[in-house]
Each structure stands twice: as C-alpha cells, then as structure tokens.
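tl;dr need the bound structure. longer version: we got a ligand (iron/sulfur cluster) that a collaborator sent over and nobodys looked at where it sits. i said id run it. heres the input, straight from their email, havent touched it
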Amino acid sequence: MEFLASDQIAIVDLASGEVETEEFSDELCQEKIGGAGINLALYNQHADGDPIVLGAGLFTGSMVPGSCLGVVTAKSPLTGQVAHAPLTQYLGMELKYSGFDYIVIKNAAAAPTMLWVHDGILDVEEAGGLAGLDVWAAVDQVRADKGDDLIQVLGTGPAAASSDLACLMNNYWPSGDRFGLGHALAAKNLKLVAIRGLGLLEIADDEEFVDQCVALQGEVKGGVWAGKKGLLDLAKGMGQDALADWLAPLVHRHRANFNTPFAANSFLFLQGDPSALPEPEEAEMGVLLTDLGAAALFQQMGLELGDAGAILKQCAKLGLDAGLAAKVCLDGGKTDAAAISGALEGLSGPVEGLSGPFSPATPKTAVFGVDQAGDDAWWTRRQAVAHIFGLDPLFVLLAPELSEAKLVELAGIGTELEFSQEGLDAVIAEVCG
Amino acid sequence: MGVKIDPLKCTACMACELACGYHRDDAFALLSSCIVVYRTRDKKDYFGVILKEEEDLVIARPEGLEVKRIGAVEEGGGGGDASAKPMLLREACDLCEDRDDGPLCKQVCPVDAVYLD
Amino acid sequence: MSNPLSAVNAYNRGLARGGAPPPPPALAKARGGRAPRYPRLGVYTGAGSSHSWLWFAESLERLGFYDLRFLDHAEIAAGGLDGLDGLAVSGGDTFAMARALGQPGAKALEGFLAGGGLYLGACAGAYLMLRSSQEPLCWFNFVQATIANLSRDLPQPLMLPEKYKTAYGCDYVFHPVREAVGLSCAPGPLGGEELAAPLYGGPAMIPASEEVEVLARYAAFEKRTKFLAPRDLAAETLLGLAAVLRAPYGRGSLYLFGPHFEHPGFPTANRLLAAAIYADLPERQPERGPEEQAALDGRPAKDWLLSIKRELSNSRIVALGLEDHPARWLIGTKVYEPAKLRVFLEALWDRLRALGKAPALRGPADALEGLPGSLARITVQARALKQGLDAGQDTQPLAEELFPGLVGAASQFMKIYFATALAGLDEDRDGRRLH
Ligand code: SF4
Ligand code: SF4
C-alpha cells in the first residue's frame, strides 16, 4: 500500500520473541478497507496463536475530521466473542505513523515483555522492571527509559493479571475498552506496547483529498455539536443535566481526540482550583474523564464527586475499567466510596448484558437530538464505519456529514484504489459479526 | 499580521499541526509543522500551542498568549526559557502564502481557536 | 532553470561514470579548456567543526560530487589528504580546529597545498587560514589576509549574545549580523554574480598581498539579515569588505568564504562552489594509495541496516522531544543546543532509505563494523541526557561526550553512504538520494 499507509504488517510471536514483517497489499486494503475490517481478517488468519491485533483505520492520522481511531481486535475475556476496542486520544494516530499499519501479537511470552514500536521497527523487550508498576508509573518509566514524553503507551495495570475487568489503558487513561482486553494482554505476559510514530503518509491525489477534507471540516463545523465541548455538554446533550451539574464543580478543561472536532474528554481537578490556568507545581492534578459511563453510575450511587474522582483515579492506576467496576459494585450492593475503593483490587466479573463487537462506552442514547439516535442497528453500523475507517466512534454519531458515500469516495481519492458501497457493506457485515 | 491561537478555545486536537505538516510536505506528517501542540503534561491537564515565526515564537499557554523574540536578550541576561533555536529544523510560518484560501491551520481548526491578528 | 544545481549534478554524474560530457554554462568558464576530470574531495569533520560540515556533504551531493572522504584532525595529520584533489573545511571553533590539527596537521595541509591541492574554507575554515600571530593559529598562515571584523570596544548585542563575539587576543572577533547577506562577485571564477549567502560568524577579510584576489564583497543587507549590532555599525564593519578570497599557495590554491556558500538553502552559492572547485582543480589526479573498502550484501547488509535504523530511530525520538528545550552547553567556544542533535540525526535518517536500496553497502571496514556500536552509544547517551535534563542535573559532561561522539558516528555514516553511492554510479545505478 503506497498511500495512506506505511505498507507494513508485523507479526509478533511472543513465545519465540520473533517478529516477521509482511507487505500490506493493495488487495487486502481493497477487500477489507482497514481498521476492524483488516484486523478481523488478520485475527482469523492467525487464530491458532490466540492473537491480539492492533490496527489503524484507513483514514486514521489523516485530515478526515475525526481521524483518531486505532482498533484492537481480540477475543474478549468477558464476552468470549471477538471484539473491537477503540484506541482514541493520540494512540491511534501514533500507531498509524509508527511504520506499521497492523500488528498481530500471537501466543504468550514466558516472562514479562513489552513491545517498542518506532519508525517501522518492532522490538520485543523484557519488561521485568515494569511488571509490578501501576499504569501511571509504568507509563512514566517507559517514557523516561526511552527518553521521550510523547511516546504513546497501550498498557495494562496490576489488575490485568487476575481481573477480567481490566481494560486496555491509553497512557494514563482508560481506552474505552469494555471487553477486558487488558486481561487478555496480561495473559500473554505483555505489560505494554510503547509506540512512537514519526512517519509520513503519502496521499494519492493529495490536493483533491485535502480540499475535500477541508470542505468536510467546514460542513461538520455547523453540526449539532457546534459550540459544545466536553463531557458536561455531552451529558446535557443526552438529557442528563443532573450528571452535568454534578460533574461541573471539578471540571478543568476539555480535550479532543486527535483531529476530532468535538472535544469528548474532560479533566477533573481532584486538588487545587479547577478554574486555575497556570501550570500547577504538582505532577498529578486529577483524572481525565474519557466517557460518562462510570461517572453516571457513581452519581447514581450518591457518591461525592471528589470521592468518585478518587475512585476513577484508583481504577486508572490499577488499569481497571471504572465503568465495569462501578457496575459490579452496584450489582453487589457496594455503593459507598470506602467500600468501592477497598474492593477494587481483586474485583472481577462477570458483567451482565455485555455483547456485540463494539464498545458501549460510546453512548447509544440520543445525543444532541441526532435523528437516528437510539436505533441500535444504526448505532452498530456507525460504529462499524468508525472502526473500519479509523474515525472517532462518538463523532461519527454526531456528524452525518461523514456519510458512507463520502468516505468511500475519499478512500478512492486517497489511495487510488477502487472502493464501493457494496464492498463496504460486506466489510461492515463481517465486523459486526 | 500573524497567526494567533486562543488557548482557552483550543482543545489540543492537533488539526492545525497536521494541516501545517501537509502544507510543508504535501503528505500527512507532523515533523515539519511550525505550529505544534504541546501535550506532554497530561496529568496536569496543561496544554497549549507553539507557533514558530521568522522572528518570534508565539506561545499560546492556557494563562495567556506570549510572544517571544527568538534569540532576544532578556533583561538581566540569559535567553529566557525558550530555546535560542526553537524548532531549528522547522521552517517559520509563511502564512501559507501559496494558498488562495490563506492559512490552512486556521481553516481546519474546528473551534476557531486559530485567528489572524 | 528551476534548480541551479541540476545541470552541474548531471555533468558530474556523467564524469563519474567515466564519460566526457560537455560542461554546463555555469562551469564552462571555470573549466577553461582543460580536460574534464571527476574530483575527489575531503570534508573535515574533526575537532572544532560544527554541524555545518553536513552542509558541505549535502551541497556536494546535490552537485553530484560523490567521491567524498570524511576526515578528522588525526586522519589529516596521518596522511589522509593523500589522493584528494580538495579539502572542504566548514564552520565551528577555529581555535579548537587549529589546536586539534596541531603542527602535524598544518604540515600535512602545507604539503597538500604545495602539491597542488585545493582548499575550500567557510567561516571557521576561512579564519583558520588567515594570518595570525597567535598560537596555534600562526601555524596556518597560508593566506596573506587578515580579519576585518575585530574590535576592542563593542556595544551591547541586540540579540543572541553568545553568537556576538569571540575573544581573540586582547580583541574580539565580532559578528554584527547573521543569516543572509547580499554579496557582489567580481568577474572571475564566481562570474560577477550578485547573490545571497548566510553569514554565521564568518569573517570580513582584508587582503595583505597582491596575490590574494577578492572574489566577492559584502554588498548589502537582506530582508532576512538579523542584526546583532546596530545597523550602521554592521554596515561599517562589513559592507565593501572582502567576503570571498582566493589565494595561491605552492601549486595549490585556497578559497576562503566568510559566508557559508555550502549552505543547502542557497543553491546559487552552491553552484559557485562547484565553479570554484573546477576553476582550481589540480591538473593531474593525485596519486591514490590502495584503498581498504569492505562490502556487505544480502542478509548481513539487511541486518546492518536494521541495527542502524533502530538506533537512529531511538536517538531521533529523543532528539525530537528535546528540540525546544532551553538547555545549552558550551563546548570549546561553541554553544550547542539540544536541537543540534536532531540536525545530525536527520541528516543520517534522510539518507538511510537510499542506502537500503543499494545492491551492496560499501565503505571502510572500520566504519561498517563500528557504526552500529557508535549509534547504540549515542542512543544511551541521548536518553541519559534527557533524563538528566528532566531531573535538573548538570548535563555538561554528558553533552561533552555526546556531541563529539555524534559527529564521529555521522562521519562514519557518511563514509559508508558516499562510498556506496559512488559504487552505485559505477554500476550505472541511480546513486542519488531519494528525496
Ligand atoms: S486546531 Fe485549533 S483546537 Fe485544534 S489544536 Fe489547533 S488551535 Fe487547538
Ligand atoms: S499559516 Fe500555514 S505555515 Fe503558518 S502555521 Fe498555519 S499552516 Fe503552518
């Protein structure tokens, strides 16, 4: 693949420590498009190695609005089904620029291991020194060891060894994986994947592609989300004004995922003045809220926001999915902060009601009055589109301008390959299982 | 006239950085951009944007916009807290002079945090 | 012509392949009626040199000069100039260069020039050859001309104080402007052109002998000129004075450039560099001793390239993260910033892909063998530097190890790169870099 790609797929066998690379062929792209489509094909191809597949979408890292998404495809310890977990913030983009389009991780390592992915090199390294560290300490350590604070870390925490509620962590913050894939990574003795991408993506017809992206950006700018920012507005947009009011006192600033117009992450200051803007002296100020699920449950339980924030931070350090943890606690009758906090270490599933290949961290309820919101089939199809093309899974719900027809057209302009609606339909059907 | 950034509108989405990279390389890449989001102080929620101009470094910090003369002698000696050769290998902003529609970073910023002043 | 270098490049490649192409107009005058010959040039990378030797590598490559040797002070003193037509010495710390070359180096240079060699010195490479009474500079009094930009009393600098002046005996060599300056060339090898070239501390010169020819003078300031001193003082110090000199020595000749004619951002100046090379190319190819060149191909070449790529990537990642760090280190009389790391590493990284396409890797055996280890050390040191900076520690000792090590590794890399490129030309392959 010459365009919108690095033209390289890595196959890592953790048992032997060997890394093979393959060309990313035009044919594979044309047939499966990208992201979850290709992840799934690679998953099936290497199924005997119980693989975890990391991949970027066709447009990840490009100027298509919302182009933040990377995808991890693996069997969920919680559902027993193949699931596609989202990698948002800067992780999907970093993967796209790392020199690998897809990384297949097979089998299990004998000792704690990490992968160091950089500029088309994939190093399998021992990670004994990281094994006992919590998520934050491990991220800090690997960044210090490698000498760069922009390294993006797909990691796990101490919870991952034993808990099926352990999620994939996106640096310090939860990834939106609701499938316990942190546990799946730990089962391979893989502590983390550190990624730095300084690459370059060629575009087949760059002027046309960029012109269309700029025009699209102009169109989406006037969308339902315009003028809104962060999880407070999102909560209000979902009709959860009380949740927004509950969160408001500690919210500091809002952050977007890579090249994503709507900023869907909000930072809670757990110390200091949330309205203060200068750089704080302290190294840690609080926690980045990346979805509303856990917060909504804690609010339902009647927790103080500060206590809820502390639990979210504890979960982030343990590498535990706070949303699932909150649900398990609620179902088990634990609803006070001390009891929840005390129960987190060692907490595990099962979790009722989890199904489907896409993370329910992306809200299924109506947001900002989008027409088809609440329609499950529509939600699933939009998720499939997001996970194939590499687009923000929330933003595709807010931006009908990112239509399938437009994306198919852009795919052709960007790659010089031929794509069709029928081809997309087929890939969507596959990834939706 | 130059590109300015409203730090409080900015959401660190990097669309401007990506656009500038394209302006330089005719491909998607971030190494040549002269507008760069600084985002390493994640746990403090401290982020902003730096722009390299021919003479100045425009730093959009959350607490306000700062314009530093590159290489200027600071009062009391020393060179201040910016490198004397900031982003040495990146070319200074040329306001996208080859584009009829003007600065690409401004055009793609989803929250209108980039403006000309 | 869209790119002033392409015709020169095509001509040089033709010569390198053993052909006899007609010289392009830009070189015809310089060549005169003499038989065409593809020159072999040295680039100084030893103590005192700054990153600007990379500019020589870049511009010479763009001009199609692939037969390049990269030499440090010890190699020069040990006979490394044998077999070379010319030696290019770029900017840096003149005193450090002179000290490192020492009397053995001066002697080697004298022999080289006396035998017909061509010397191209820019900035520090020019200062080195100007007349001086101070040791160790006095060992290199090969050009009867002096420095004009000397002063005892200076006003406060307007910017970049560390770039403003360098102690020189009881005086200061001072630099009233930086960046592009306008030059006016006399008719002769540089062809009477008006052009711009960047000045980064290079000299204005005063000839002290009739044998010394002024080829170009500082003529004007440009839009991009940066003033470190008041404009009238800058004008008084520079305008009308010699920016480029040519002087004979024995059978050889020296070109001294105040501004960096080799800077890759100034193709017209680069082209004039080629004219200078051809104008004073020795008539006959100097004797070449036997050359120990090793070659790697197949799996070993692939593994070698992978190890180089791994380490370059590792240190480049650190360097990028430090590109805006305010740290500075004074090494000799030169100030180094973290951004310089990236300058070296990108120059290598940029050439790695082309190297990967070559049918076989060539170069001195010690360079092929030593480079992976040298680069691995750079990674370790760069990471330690970053950790030290983050912890607020004194990183001066680390920087003093890292930068010379990086220069050495870059020099090893370039030896391999150009030997491989030249062999590619012999095999009629496209040895050009893949930009
Ligand atoms: S595009 Fe706008 S919002 Fe995004 S990083 Fe740049 S200035 Fe900030
Ligand atoms: S105006 Fe153009 S050159 Fe300047 S920062 Fe924006 S995109 Fe880059």
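gonna send this back to them w/ a short note. The first helix of chain A runs from residue 26 to 32.
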